[in-house]
Design a protein that fits this description.
Blueprint (H helix, E strand, L loop, with lengths): L3 E8 L5 H10 L10 E7 L7 E8 L2 H19 L20 E8 L10
Antiparallel strand pairs: 1-3, 1-4, 2-3
């Protein structure tokens, strides 16, 4: 069964970029311990767009859905420091840094790693 890739496309106004990156940095470890998790990358736009890409790879769609319904949902409801949107130190939940979000889903059909010498 091929791995699945989820890319969350976040539209982030220039004045919110630092906030978004700080929130992701403070979420350290939230997804990494999830069953079926394989890889994470936060990709900052360089030119021509205001969209960040949040790349995650999972062993299966079921593993991704289990994370969405468990740890990710709890974090986004203020139960932890997850996903870049969770509460920071109690009190009122901070305003999201992104103005829009879309999730793209893919199956890995080919992959390559660098050749070993």
């Amino acid at each position: 069964m091929p791995s699945v890739v989820k890319i969350n496309v976040l539209t982030v106004p220039a004045e919110q970029r630092e906030t978004l990156e700080q929130r992701f940095a403070s979420r350290a470890g939230m997804v990494e311990s999830s069953d079926g998790f394989e890889w994470f990358e936060l990709l900052r736009p360089v030119e021509g767009t205001d969209q960040y890409l949040v790349y995650t790879r999972w062993r299966s769609e079921q593993d991704f859905q289990a994370w969405m319904e468990g740890p990710m949902k709890a974090a986004h409801q203020g139960g932890g420091q997850g996903g870049g949107q969770a509460g920071e130190g109690g009190g009122e939940r901070p305003k999201p840094a992104a103005s829009a979000s879309t999730v793209w889903s893919f199956e890995v059909v080919q992959q390559a790693a660098p050749k070993q010498a």
